[in-house]
Design a protein that fits this description.
alpha+beta; 5-stranded mixed β-sheet; 15 strands; 306 residues; elongated; 10 helices
């Protein structure tokens, strides 16, 4: 038995959920995948995967073994990378997942600048606002508007605290009801970003001038609005066209606020901020090219923004 191959096959079978998918991923025959799993189970004298003609189930021993195997294989991959990359310029490939709108506005220019410094790198950028499984999709780095980690095999680093602003077009405001405090938003047309974790629940804080410095908080549950979309740029376009009130990170609407296309609302109330994180698989931590790009992004966001 080639134990390293057998461990690799076992890991991909568990991660992809089928022998057929693992075979395709590893460019092996389904029979070769079955042979590796059988040999591994014979060696361990314990069943790892119960399978029938229709489905498969990871045993308790298999689940425990899987987590230990992942750690070993990841450490081995990191050791290989530390030697390979230490004696060369950054080269090879990086696969990066970024949200569509944020990628176009902010992240892609950073990646392009990074490419100038490391011309031997080949970079693939996947722009998608939906959640992407880094391990399953072979992603090296993902940019996410939240640091929640779905797996212990992932790590994250905070890049930026994003201030969000409430704004609308003058044409909309001219015919809209008065807006004196956040709870008045239920009388307005509010534009919704559908992939937000709090799409219809907006939270605002107002620091009241009191002796104890207490902060007044209003949480608004919005009624169904006229426009729901899964893209921040499209949401901004709808606001500029006068269709309602928008809540987005300030960097999305800076130019429109400066030009007067959009007007800031309730300036005495601060919307709940969102943080921007870079997320990456644990075993990529020792990769010089992954670390280099993360550091490059962190340095960019650490600079005073114009």
């Amino acid at each position: 038995m080639d134990k390293l191959r057998a461990l690799t096959v076992f890991r991909r079978v568990v991660e992809l959920g089928s022998f057929k998918a693992a075979a395709e991923d590893l460019a092996l025959s389904k029979a070769a995948v079955s042979k590796n799993i059988n040999e591994l189970e014979d060696y361990l004298k314990s069943p790892l995967i119960n399978r029938t003609t229709r489905n498969m189930h990871i045993t308790d021993q298999g689940q425990h073994y899987y987590h230990r195997v992942c750690h070993i294989l990841d450490e081995l991959a990191s050791a290989d990378l530390s030697v390979i990359e230490s004696s060369h310029n950054l080269s090879g490939s990086l696969k990066i997942s970024v949200p569509m709108s944020l990628g176009l506005l902010e992240i892609n220019p950073i990646i392009c600048a990074f490419m100038h410094q490391h011309p031997e790198l080949s970079i693939e950028v996947v722009m998608n606002d939906q959640y992407v499984d880094l391990i399953d999709q072979g992603i090296d780095i993902a940019i996410r508007g939240g640091g929640e980690l779905s797996s212990s095999s992932l790590k994250s680093r905070k890049l930026l605290e994003m201030q969000r602003v409430l704004c609308a077009a003058p044409d909309y405001l001219a015919a809209a009801p008065d807006l004196r405090e956040p709870r008045d938003l239920i009388q307005h047309q509010c534009l919704i970003y559908s992939f937000s974790s709090s799409a219809r629940r907006w939270l605002f804080t107002h620091v009241v001038d009191t002796t104890d410095g207490a902060a007044q908080v209003q949480e608004v549950d919005l009624p169904p609005g006229p426009y729901v979309v899964n893209n921040g740029i499209a949401l901004k376009q709808a606001a500029c066209a006068g269709h309602g009130i928008l809540l987005l990170p300030k960097l999305f609407v800076d130019e429109e606020l400066k030009s007067g296309q959009l007007v800031t609302l309730l300036p005495d109330w601060q919307a709940e901020t969102h943080s921007l994180y870079v997320v990456y698989p644990y075993h990529k931590e020792q990769s010089q090219k992954v670390r280099a790009l993360i550091d490059f992004m962190a340095e960019h966001f650490a600079k005073p923004q114009p």
